[in-house]
Each structure stands twice: as C-alpha cells, then as structure tokens.
Amino acid sequence: MKKFICLLALLFSLPSQAQQAADGQIKWVTAELPPYLWLQHNLPQGYAYELIVTMSAQLGRKPDLSIYPWARAVKMTREGQNYGVFPLDRTADRETGFKWLIHLGSAPNRFFGKRSTVAGSVNIENASLEQLRGLRVGIVRGSSLEKDLHAQNFRNIQYEKDYQSLLKLLQLGGLDAVYSGYSIMTSAIEEYGFRLEDFTTGLNMGSAELYMASSMNVSEDEERAWRKAYEVLQKDGTVQKLRKKYFSWE
Predict the structure, then answer these.
(1) CA–CA distance, 194 with 175 (Å, rounded to integer)
(2) Cα–Cα dist 51/84, whole Å
(3) pLDDT of residue 170
(4) Would you call 72 helix, strand, or coil by DSSP?
(5) Which pLDDT value is given to residue 123?
(6) Residue 14 has what DSSP assignment?
(7) C-alpha distance from residue 226 to each of 23, 172, 189 (Å)
(8) CA distance 8 to 58
C-alpha cells in the first residue's frame, strides 16, 4: 500500500504536505471500495476516482488522492486539516464531524453469504434476523454498519481492513456472512476475481446515503469550488455517463 501511495505522488506530481496545508486545498483520502475506487494493476479506477480526476481538471489542479485502510481515512478526515473522504455514509453521529460536499447516491445494505454452503444450518438467502444474529458476520473496519449490527444485538462481528479480505474469509469458511452496501460488495466480488454466482444475498436492514465529505476546517471557498465543479459535470452529462459505466444495474 505504501508503494502505491508513493506511485500516486509521482504520477500526479503532488505538492508537499506543508504546501497543501498552506493553500487549503482538499487532500482526498479513501480505501479500496469498488465501484467507487479500487486498484487494477496497481492503478486506481472507479466512479468516485474518475469524478475526482475530472473535477480536479475543472479546477485546474492535478488530482490529490491517497489510499489508506478505511478506518484510517475516516479518522484522518475527521481529525485532520483539509482532508476529503469518500464514499462516506452520512449518519447522525457523523453529522457535525464533517462537511458534506457531494451526494454520491443511496446504497442498500444487505447480508451476503456463500451460495454453495449452509452456514450454521442457516441459508443466508432465507434467513430471519434472529437466525442471522447467531452467525459470524464480517464488516470493513471503520464502517458505519457496525452500529446497525449492534442496534440489532449482533455480537459475533469480525472486522477486516478491506473487502478483498472479507471475501477471502467468506469463501474459506472463516465467516458465515458479510454485511455490506450492495453495490460495493457486488463490485468487489467481480473486481477481485470471485464469481457472483457463488454468492447469495439476504436480509436488507436499511440503506446508506453516501457522500464526498471533508474536514470541518475546509474553507467555504474550497467547498464551493468542488460543488461547482460537480455541477458542471452534472450539466454536461459526465456524471450520468459515469454512473452508467459503474452502476450498470441501476
């Protein structure tokens, strides 16, 4: 991962951190979360990644983006200076900790399991909430979905740094189910070399409103600049084309 962050710095000729802090421009951070961003042959791609690149061009800037484990990216943005993070679920406990710049869309949350096995005598596809509570359920570390599970009295929750790790554990039997945003999990299955037909979906416990968000100290001028750049992409059809490219099931 450190190697990739260095690659991005060389690729985009990023200014030093001191220069970035001085000019007040947003430094974007995220994790591998298909279809919003993931690595292919060590190069980033995805819906939000292309938005960042295109909006940066609108602003006359080079893209400023680094990839970290998700929990760290969220913490950096909440506690740091002039950071931006995506795709961040807008929840009540996060409302006053971030500036909510651009709405990326809604994402239903579902349980995923292996189609070929019966986990703990429970078929994920037809499992009730009570049955699911007894399973080993995996989520990405730092995900807001942890609160959903705790609110429903799930106790056997396992945390992993990314979706590739969750999928490997699920396939090998180290997990009974994964709780995830539907679009992220289905994209991760395909992009990381798994087969969609090997997995099945279960109960939906709600949905997430996903945003590009920033640190609270980001200036109003910087906020307006990014929102304006996004509006331009909406008007010229770029946003629609990218959604069609990365969210083909919509």
Answers:
(1) 16
(2) 13
(3) 94
(4) helix
(5) 85
(6) P
(7) 15, 43, 31
(8) 20
Query: What is the helix (H) or strand (E) element at residue 203, kind and residue range?
Result: strand 199-214
- pLDDT band at residue 250, thresholds of 50, 70 and 90? low
Token representation of residue 30:
């995220």
**Of residues 243 and 22, which shows the higher confidence score?**
243
Beta strands in 49-132 (DSSP E): 65-67, 83-89, 99-114
Place of tokens 């909430």: 129
The candidate with the shortest Cα–Cα distance to 236, out of 34, 46, 57, is 57
| pLDDT tens-digit series, residues 180-205 | 999 999 999 999 999 999 999 999 99
What DSSP letter does each residue of 150-201 carry, written as one string?
Answer: HHTT---EEEESSHHHHHHHHHHTS-SEEEEEHHHHHHHHHHTT--GGGEEE
Taking the C-alpha atoms of residue 7 and residue 17, their distance in angstroms, rounded to an integer, is: 16
- Nearest Cα neighbor of 222 from 79, 84, 18 is 84
Scan for tokens 């690149």, then name that residue: 53
pLDDT digits over 147-160, tens only?
A: 999 999 999 999 99
Q: Check if the beta carbon of residue 15 is closer than 8 Å to that of residue 8.
A: no
Residue type, position 186, single letter? T
Residues of 52-62 as b/e, b for ≥16 C-beta within 10 angstroms?
A: bebbbebeeee
Q: What is the mean pLDDT of residues 64-70?
A: 95
pLDDT per residue as tens digits for the range 69-86: 999 999 999 999 999 999
Residue 184 structure tokens: 């992220």
Quick one: tokens of 185?
């999990």
DSSP state at residue 16: P
* Residue 3: its H or E element: helix 2-12
